[in-house]
Specification:
Distance between the termini: 37 Å
Amino acid sequence: MKRNPALQSSRERMAPGRLSRGGFLGDDERPLDEIVAADGAELAALGVTAAEIAELLESFHRAADEALETPRELCGGRIVVQETEVMGRIPCPFACGFRTHKANILVRSGDRTWVVTPMHAHLIGRHGFFQGRGSAFRVEPADLAALVRLCRGGVTPAAG
């Protein structure tokens, strides 16, 4: 099957050193459309939408940003977020015009910890992209779906 040239350009921008030191793909050699389709299928099976995840991640970002690099409890104390600012701004690797400031947001729930960035909500909500396998900033769809359910009052994310 012929690949979309725009996605090939996006993939090139996702390489290490182009927009970020480590890139967006890790060791995942699958074409972008296959990465997005696989993660989308997993989300559908989990009964959570990319929009729900993006909304939750955006709320984490707002809360962490307002807390000025101090821990902030969310979702009834079941989640703690803390942001560390990094200098600069970063454009979306899909070249859609979105740009955001750089920051690392530590998300803790129980004994699990994830690191997300302000770009995560956009990449997932607009492009269905969770980053490639092996990427330092990939968060698995199942983990984010568990966080959505947790904030709705559901189950705690499984230890892993």
